Amino acid sequence: QIRLVESGGGLVQAGGSMRLSCAASGNIESINYMAWYRQAPGKERDLVAGVTNGDSKKYLEAVKGRFTISRDYIKNTVVLQMDSLKPEDTGVYYCNAVGYVNSQYLDYWGQGTQVTVSS
Description:
Blueprint: E1 2-7, E2 10-13, E3 18-26, E4 31-39, E5 45-52, E6 57-59, E7 67-72, E8 77-82, E9 91-101, E10 104-109, E11 113-118
């Protein structure tokens, strides 16, 4: 089992910055990928940014150049730095970890944190 606890989030004005952090605990040795997803009201959950153990990163096209994902392998955290925020970045942000256990990949999720960007 992997437990993910998110911190950060809240209300920010357009153009501002916000930092989300996610701390992993439990069977962290099994993690090979971590990511942030977001879900706006009435919409599906979308991948915002992801990073592999090899530090390969992927971003949603709409956030490229504004968001940065990073991992701290000592603290077992993944951080999403969000700059130049826009109202369309509003949503619930979820931390995700993929663990490889017993020859299968398993998804783990945090509880979600609300990010609201006002115009």
